[in-house]
Specification:
Elements lengths: L10 H26 L6 H14 L10
Length: 66
């Protein structure tokens, strides 16, 4: 018969892991919400988003290149 020792989980580690997961989810959601509402001011991001959108819709030109 195989028996395994039961490991105890420290409450401090559970709390830290839960807070880290919550922080990750909040940051990810906030980042997506800003991107979805066009609140980024970065030119590079706008360039790549427009290029991907144009490619998905079958257009191969990007208007920011002239």
């Amino acid at each position: 018969m195989i028996t395994a020792e039961r490991q105890t989980v420290e409450p401090g580690k559970v709390i830290v892991t839960a807070l880290a997961g919550l922080f990750f989810l909040i940051c990810t959601w906030t980042s997506y919400a800003r991107w979805a509402n066009f609140q980024y001011r970065s030119f590079d991001l706008a360039y790549y988003v427009q290029a991907i959108w144009q490619l998905i819709h079958g257009r191969l030109d990007v208007s920011v290149e002239n």
